[in-house]
């Protein structure tokens, strides 16, 4: 009987299933111990701010009065917010499309370059530059002053090479010295002249830097007599350095104004045109008898071409997108290049053997096979451009900040940049989150599908 009681009191034997359950339980506890710090950080840095922003969006600017959906209603009534939504839509459509296309083209071309690794490194290097530094670089590059902005310096150089520049943008005539200014900015003699006469045209206000290096004194040219069939004259700087001289007369030290366009006008029509020499002299030969007016066209006095207003209201968004392309093109090229390297080469070689050219192979084989990679790159860039803030805030000058604003910058401006309405700013943050979530879900599903 005692043996029977001891047998009944002994613990049941541990089975293999019990050991497995205990091992799984210990594994879960260990996994939870490792994951808990990450979950804690995720909750503190992501989940809590999201929940707080959602709740804050239902309160007024002070955060004390519940306003319900008024912030969301006000958000879509505000012209600045509507412009931010429009600009964000432009970013989402243009930037990822251009980046994916550029990345695809460059990835295909790099395969045919001998120094492919160096070329990839060169294109990928902008990714190492912070958005703050890139914004400062492009803010300087887009500067409207050609002496500061490299892009406008190049544009002005090309423009001046083909069309030339005005010679004397600051020159003007003194009142009562025989020249009158037209509505178009040109100057014309008040009195007419006939062949055989000489006309002296004095100007002032010419900056030393605008005076040609080869300019010579105009005194000798002013003293020459005109032939019977020609009309002569001189265009000179009616100013003597150090003082002295007589207004309206060519003094010995006064310089001629070379490369000045001069026209002979009769009955409102230009009958002859010439350009002044180094001493400012000009002459019209073989003119018919009669009276003529001498005109200095407005092109001589036009302001110099200053280039393109890259950061003006019309071009500020495309200009910032250009800076974004410079940074992210290498990223798209490297990802697409990795997908291109994994393509089955037998399909490409079979197409070449069948007589397909490179364009047909690219369009009918390479692009379809790369479609999953291209989709992932495109959606990743869509998520990224929805959150763009640094470049817009740094590159866009204050006067055009509203023209370039996107949802992220508008959220900051409304909340902290002077608006001090964190209720409306939180509503903008929730809107941005709702726009990003579908793209994130799509990308996660694509990644899971590729792993299977």
Task: Jot down its keywords.
single chain; 452 residues; alpha+beta; MetI-like fold; five-stranded antiparallel beta sheet; elongated
What is the level 1 CATH name of the largest domain?
Mainly Alpha
Low-pLDDT residue intervals, each spanning 5 or more residues: none
CATH homologous superfamily of the largest domain - what is it? MetI-like
- Count of helical stretches: 15
Class of secondary structure makeup: alpha+beta
Q: List the secondary-structure elements in sequence, H or E.
A: HHHHHHHEEEHEEEEEHHHHHHH
Write the topology of this structure.
Blueprint lengths: L1 H8 L6 H41 L13 H6 L3 H32 L5 H9 L6 H11 L8 H14 L15 E3 L5 E3 L8 E6 L15 H4 L7 E8 L23 E6 L2 E7 L5 E5 L7 E4 L19 H26 L3 H9 L4 H29 L3 H6 L5 H4 L2 H9 L6 H30 L1
Parallel strand pairs: 3-4
Antiparallel strand pairs: 1-2, 2-8, 4-7, 5-6, 5-8
């Amino acid at each position: 009987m005692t043996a029977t009681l001891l047998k009944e009191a002994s613990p049941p034997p541990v089975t293999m299933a019990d050991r497995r359950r205990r091992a799984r339980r210990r594994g879960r506890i260990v996994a939870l111990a490792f994951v808990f710090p990450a979950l804690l950080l995720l909750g503190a840095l992501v989940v809590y701010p999201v929940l707080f922003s959602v709740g804050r969006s239902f309160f007024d600017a002070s955060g004390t009065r519940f306003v319900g959906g008024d912030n969301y209603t006000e958000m879509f009534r505000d012209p600045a917010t509507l412009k931010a939504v429009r600009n964000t839509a432009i970013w989402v459509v243009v930037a990822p499309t251009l980046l994916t296309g550029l990345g695809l083209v460059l990835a295909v071309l790099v395969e045919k370059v001998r120094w492919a690794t160096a070329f990839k490194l060169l294109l990928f290097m902008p990714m190492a530059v912070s958005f703050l530094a890139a914004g400062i670089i492009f803010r300087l590059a887009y500067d409207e002053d050609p002496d500061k902005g490299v892009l406008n310096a190049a544009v002005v150089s090309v423009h001046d090479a083909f069309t030339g520049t005005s010679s004397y943008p600051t020159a003007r005539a003194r009142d009562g010295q025989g020249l009158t200014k037209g509505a178009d900015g040109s100057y014309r003699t008040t009195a007419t002249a006939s062949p055989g006469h000489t006309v002296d045209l004095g100007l002032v206000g010419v900056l030393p830097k605008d005076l040609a290096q080869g300019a010579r004194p105009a005194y000798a040219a002013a003293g020459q007599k005109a032939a019977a069939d020609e009309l002569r004259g001189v265009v000179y700087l009616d100013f003597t350095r150090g003082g002295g001289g007589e207004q309206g007369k060519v003094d010995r030290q006064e310089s001629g104004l070379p490369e000045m366009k001069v026209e002979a006008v009769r009955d409102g029509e230009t009958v002859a045109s010439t350009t002044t020499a180094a001493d400012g002299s000009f002459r019209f030969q073989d003119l018919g008898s009669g009276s003529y007016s001498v005109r200095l066209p407005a092109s001589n006095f036009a302001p110099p071409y200053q280039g393109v207003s890259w950061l003006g209201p019309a071009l500020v968004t495309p200009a910032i997108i250009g800076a974004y392309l410079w940074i992210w093109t290498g990223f798209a090229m490297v990802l697409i290049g990795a997908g291109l390297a994994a393509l089955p080469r037998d399909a490409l070689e079979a197409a070449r053997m069948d007589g397909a050219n490179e364009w047909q192979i690219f369009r009918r084989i390479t692009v379809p096979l790369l479609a999953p990679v291209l989709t992932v790159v495109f959606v990743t860039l869509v998520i990224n451009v929805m959150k763009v803030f640094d470049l817009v805030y740094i590159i866009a000058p204050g006067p055009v900040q509203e023209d370039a604003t996107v949802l992220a910058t508008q959220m900051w401006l409304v909340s902290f940049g002077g608006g001090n309405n964190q209720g409306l700013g939180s509503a903008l943050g929730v809107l941005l989150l709702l726009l990003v979530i579908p793209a994130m879900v799509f990308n996660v599903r694509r990644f899971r599908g590729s792993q299977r």
